Amino acid sequence: MSSTEVIATFDSTHHALRFEKTLKQNEIALVVMPVPREISASCGLAVKFNEQNIDRVKDLTQENEIQVRKYYEIKINDNKREYLALD
């Protein structure tokens, strides 16, 4: 059984690192990765996490004043990854 993943992108490395630290402190599994080529962002770091945590992640970013540029849902179609921007 696979689960849907989400990527968060940032305008600065500072926000990406604060985001990572905050999620880890709240025991939310994540992977720090380069921003995929298909996504344009000023910062080269993105953080991937399970979609089931999106509401908690958004609450934490608001509580900790962490600026996320955009969230993207990862979809796989015909063995190709697509990144769909979330509102």
Please provide a written account of the structure:
With 87 residues, the chain is α+β, with helices and mostly antiparallel strands. Helix content is 26%, strand content 34%. It is built from 2 helices and 5 strands. Strands 2-3-1-4-5 form a 5-stranded antiparallel beta sheet, with helices on one face. The model has no long low-confidence stretch (mean pLDDT 91).
The helix-and-strand class reads alpha+beta
Largest sheet: 5 strands, antiparallel
CATH class value? Alpha Beta
CATH topology: Alpha-Beta Plaits
Radius of gyration: 12 Å
**Assigned CATH architecture:** 2-Layer Sandwich
Number of H- or I-type helical stretches: 2
**H/E order of the elements?**
EHEEHEE
In whole angstroms, how far apart are the ends?
A: 26 Å
User: What fraction of the residues are assigned to beta strands by DSSP?
Assistant: 25-35%
Task: Detail the poorly predicted runs.
Answer: none
Fraction of residues in helices? 25-40%
Can you give the mean pLDDT? Answer: 91
Give the total of beta strands.
Answer: 5
Give the neighbour order of strands across the main sheet: 2-3-1-4-5
Q: What form results from the Cα inertia axes?
A: globular
Number of domains: 1
